[in-house]
Design brief:
nine-stranded mixed sheet; two-stranded antiparallel sheet; mainly beta
Length: 185
Amino acid sequence: MEMKKDNAVSPVIGVLLMLVVTIIIAAVVAAFTGGLTGETKKSPQIALSADYSQTGGLKIFHDGGDNVLTPSTKIFVGPTADFGSYEQLRWEVNTSKTTIMPANITWYDPTLAASKSARFFQAGDYAITSPDDVQPRLYGSSGTSDSSSGYYGFKNSKFVNFRFNLMIVDSEGRTIANTVVKIKP
């Protein structure tokens, strides 16, 4: 009697398996090099610091990093845990009353057509705004400052040495920079 041996897989199947593995590897490499992922816009990144005084206002320092196009960014503040359970709140700083120094230009002024042109906040610059334009706003239609709030008003004297969050955010809602600021008298 004659015995048949089936010791190995056919050489054709081996070649096909190697071809499939090669195609998969090529697809993965193409995806990582940008061929399949598309182009995404990178948000600028900066080093940021700030000072806040209840009498002098907010001073934001651009300590290094990318230039920030100001007409397409917003500045937000929000209480930290120092204020209790109000950490989830945040308010937009009035950037039409925020001045970039030393150039002495407004961060963003919606009433001027020139505001849509390029204005940059760059390394070495600082931006200033009054204490009233940093304050939390009331939830009503008046939009007046809530500086006397017993819960989170940054001008309230009982909150000296408390801290608040400061964030610069791009037009797509991505955080460019953030820092924690201590309230001074």
